[in-house]
Amino acid sequence: MTEYANTPKPPYYACIFVSKRTEGDRGYGAMSDKMAELAAQQPGYLGVESARDEGLGITVSYWDSLEAIRLWKENAAHQVAQERGKNEWYESFGLRICKVERDSFYKL
Predict the structure, then answer these.
(1) Domain containing residue 54: CATH number
(2) pLDDT in tens, 9-48
(3) Cis omega (within 30 of 0) on the bond before 11?
(4) Suppose 52 and one of 1, 39, 57, 60 were both cysteines; which one would form an S-S bond, judging by CB atoms 3.0 to 4.6 Å apart?
(5) Domain tally, the chain
């Protein structure tokens, strides 16, 4: 990913998902792409930023409300991906939900 998410003026919400992957792909890449496309179609979705190195992955998705986050968590296809993540793709993971009250960016 090379672009910042185009978020509105705060307040809005950020879901910060951190993970350590297991070895091998086993369909992870395709599911990740599918989930990114599906999330972008959900009401309240504002954008995403993601990075991964050899060990740690961080994905931050932005939403306009806690209700939008709840509905995304309950999405049937997303629940399938969550289960596969727990059983196949992640050694460990964590999720933080935060209210963004201020943001600022600097560009050269």
Answers:
(1) 3.30.70.100
(2) 999 999 999 999 999 899 999 999 999 999 999 999 999 9
(3) yes
(4) 57
(5) 1
